[in-house]
Structure formats: C-alpha cells, structure tokens
Specification:
Elements (H helix, E strand, L loop, with lengths): L2 H10 L10 H7 L13 H5 L12 H5 L3 E4 L19 H9 L7 H11 L4 E4 L6 H16 L17 E4 L3 H14 L7 E4 L5 H9 L4 E4 L1 H9 L10 E4 L2 H6 L3 H10 L5 E6 L4 H10 L4 E5 L21 H14 L5 E4 L3 H10 L3 E4 L5 H12 L5 E4 L15
Parallel strand pairs: 2-7, 2-8, 3-5, 3-6, 4-5, 6-7, 9-11, 10-11
Antiparallel strand pairs: 1-8
Helix pairs in contact: 6-7, 7-8, 10-12
The structure holds adenosine monophosphate.
Adenosine monophosphate (AMP) binds next to helix 7.
Length: 402
C-alpha cells in the first residue's frame, strides 16, 4: 500500500480517530539514553514488496464466529473495537497496520487492544496464529508513543540500555518472529525494538542494544544473564509481556521468570498470553497481574486447536511400522511440504535419514543451523522439516502438512 493510499484510508476514517501530532515520534528518536542510533531501514526492507504483503491466510469468517469470554472488574466500560480506526491509534501506528496488510482486527485484537490501551493488565487465552503479537505490541507502542520517552535516572555517567517495554518468549524462533513483527509496527515511530536470545554472540547483541533499545524481546535465560552482568537495566520497564506463559512453565522457566519479574518496577502494566490455562499459569497470573481482565478466545477445550487444521490419527503396531507409515504418507503427499514433529533429538536425526529432501531442527543445533534449516524449508528448497517441540508453536511456515 503506498503513502497516498494510507492517507486515503486515514481520511475515510475521519471522525473516528484524533489526529495526533507526530511530536512524540521525534521525542523517542531524541531519547537521552546515550543511544548511538541504528541504521534506518526502508519501508520495503521492513514490510517487503507491496504485492507480497498478505494476511497469512487468516480466515476471518471462521474467526469471527469464535466465542469470546471477557471477565474482570468493570469490563463493561471497555468496548471492543470492530475496526482498527476505532482504537484511536497514533497515525504512524495506524499506517503501519495498513502497511502490514491488516484490514480488520482478529477477535483477540478486538478485545485486547482497547483493554490494554485503557491501562488495564490482561490475561489472554488465545490460540497460536490468532494475531497475538499485534494484540500486545500495538497497545504497548501506543502507550509509549502517548507517554513519550522517560527521563533517564540521574547520576548514571555511562547510561546502559534501559528498555521501557519487555517481551519474554520461550524460544529464539518465537522471539525472532515477534521481533520481525514489532519492527513493522514500530516503523518510523522512533521506537527501537531489539532482540536477545541464547546460543548467539552476546557481544553483538550488547552492541545492538547500545544503538538504542526501547522495547526488548528476549528469551528468559539470556535476559537473566545480561541483566545480572548489568548489560541491560530493567528499571524503566513500563510494559511487560509474557508470551506463551504455559509453554514457558512447561519448559521449566518459572524460576527465571519470577526472578526477572522481581527486577521490574512495581508501577507497570503486565500482559500475559497463554494457549492453555493450567493451575501454574493461574498462580503466575494472580501473583503478578493487578486488577486484570481475562479474555478467552474460543471454547476452553478447543483453545489449542486451530479450526483450519484437520487432525487424523493413524494407529501403528511398533516403531518400525510407524516409520514405514510415515514414509508412505510423505510419499503420498510428495508435492506438498510437511512438518514432522518427534519427541527426541535422536528420533529427529533418525527420521530425517529415512526421509528424502528433509532438514531438521532441535535443541542441539546452533542458531545458524536452525535459521538455515528454517529458511531452506520456508523457501521451498526442502520439502520436509523434522523437528522436536522447539518448533512446536508460533512459527509461521506457509501452508505445510504437520
Ligand atoms: P500471530 O498470532 O501474532 O503470530 O499472528 C499470526 C499471523 O497473522 C501473522 O502472520 C500476522 O501477521 C497475521 N495477522 C495478525 N493480525 C492480523 C490481522 N488483523 N489481519 C490479517 N493478518 C493478521
């Protein structure tokens, strides 16, 4: 979408949104935090060519039929939006949503955006692929744009990176995806989003943070490490987002998460997303969210299931039979791309040996190997991706069989 189309869209929405001055954007660029400034990417570098900007196959008619439950004190006063224009977003954010090719909000966005913009904490139960990233990142950016950058605490001679927004994600792949989306939403706002994760060079990540870091997207282990070494300070965090809370707890991150949350200021807004709602997640929510609103998208028992996925069970006698059936199934669908999930790293390698034209992703592969495998699969050069659950959620890989 070109700039004149964007202006046209804005004009058509007249009366719905306050036109705000772009003053705040400039303020974030001039934030007095010792930033060195990063290279500014062009619109095409950030969003891709206009023709390829798509809606990732979201079937809105199906999505709109999904029931949504909202609970919490005084929730009646917060009205869901049916169009992005009703959220009265700052112009640059609204333009970026259009540049992403989003025409209307998904159910989780309809409810989460006004709740979070109104300043409330949020616990959202929504399935993967429901548009969660926009649901938490847009209100976070909107709040930061409205408030402008904070003054730096006095007395620090050599300021260290002090993000104002923090997103924790369980895996590097998911963190990387959130970073890509956030870079789109924050385009030309002056707000800089950075990413840190384990298994990659810490020095390079530190140098990137020093260029300016307003929103930090991190995996828990690397963030604990860097915060303990004073490479980053969490004392200015106003906005904290915990993505895939249930998965984080399954992966054993609870102690690190609690430690990180205890480093954050008390005065902040907290948003948690989860696909399921086990007791451990409820406990985390009641310990760290204040006066929160709960949004559940979908029937409780269906929360993990994407309505676009057909599930079939094939019964096999033993391991050998299982592998034979798998190879036969892959041959049947030899024109399509397929993701095969297995339980162990060893099984990953064994299966990949039996399957032509495959790549593998598991926890023993370093970041470069994982990125390489993903990009070979995404580009279609490899037909089969064999993975452990490091790739189980949140990855966006076209239309593959699983
Ligand atoms: P997420 O759940 O954040 O990983 O989003 C899943 C996919 O849906 C991503 O490709 C998003 O870019 C896309 N998406 C999110 N919100 C919308 C929307 N309102 N309209 C169209 N596509 C969307």
């Amino acid at each position: 979408m070109c700039s004149s189309d964007l202006r046209g869209e804005r004009d058509r929405n007249d009366g719905m949104r306050e036109m705000r001055s772009e003053g705040n954007n400039k303020d974030w660029r001039r934030r007095q935090d010792g930033r060195r400034g990063g290279e500014e990417k062009t619109e095409v570098e950030v969003f891709g060519e206009v023709v390829s900007r798509s809606t990732a196959g979201i079937d809105f008619d199906k999505y709109d039929a999904i029931p949504v439950q909202i609970t919490g004190a005084n929730v009646d006063s917060i009205k869901p939006i049916s169009r992005f224009s009703e959220a009265k977003l700052t112009d640059s954010l609204f333009d970026n949503i259009r540049r992403c090719g989003y025409d209307r909000p998904t159910p989780v966005q309809k409810h989460s955006i006004p709740i979070v913009v109104s300043g409330r904490d949020l616990m959202a139960c929504a399935q993967t692929g429901s548009g969660k990233t926009c649901a938490f990142m847009i209100p976070c950016l909107e709040s930061l744009l409205r408030s402008g950058p904070p003054p730096n605490p006095s007395g620090s001679r050599r300021p260290k990176p002090m993000p104002c927004g923090l997103v924790l994600a369980p895996t590097r792949e998911l963190a990387a995806q959130i970073h890509v989306e956030s870079t789109k939403f924050s385009f030309e706002t002056g707000i800089r989003c950075c990413i840190i994760y384990g298994g990659a060079d810490m020095r390079e990540q530190r140098m990137d943070l020093e260029k300016g870091c307003d929103i930090l997207i991190a995996t828990p282990g690397r963030l604990s490490d860097m915060a303990e070494r004073s490479n980053v300070s969490l004392e200015l965090i106003q906005f904290f987002i915990l993505d895939e809370a249930d998965r984080m707890l399954d992966m054993g991150f609870e102690p690190q998460i609690r430690k990180i949350i205890n480093m954050l200021p008390q005065e902040r807004q907290t948003v948690m997303f989860t696909a399921t709602w086990p007791t451990a997640v409820r406990r985390l929510a009641s310990d760290f969210l204040r006066d929160f609103v709960e949004v559940r998208v979908g029937e409780a028992e269906n929360l993990r299931v994407n309505p676009d996925i057909e599930q079939r069970v094939v019964l096999c006698d033993d391991m050998y039979g299982k592998e034979q059936q798998l190879v036969a199934l892959l041959q049947e669908n030899s024109n399509d791309q397929t993701i095969v999930f297995v339980n162990t790293k060893r099984e990953c390698e064994t299966v990949a040996l039996r399957v032509d034209n495959s790549v593998v992703i598991h926890g023993d592969k370093d970041q470069h190997e994982r990125d390489m495998a993903l990009s070979l699969f995404k580009s279609g050069s490899r037909r089969v991706l064999v993975a452990t659950d490091v790739a189980a959620r949140g990855l966006e890989i076209g239309r593959a069989h699983v």
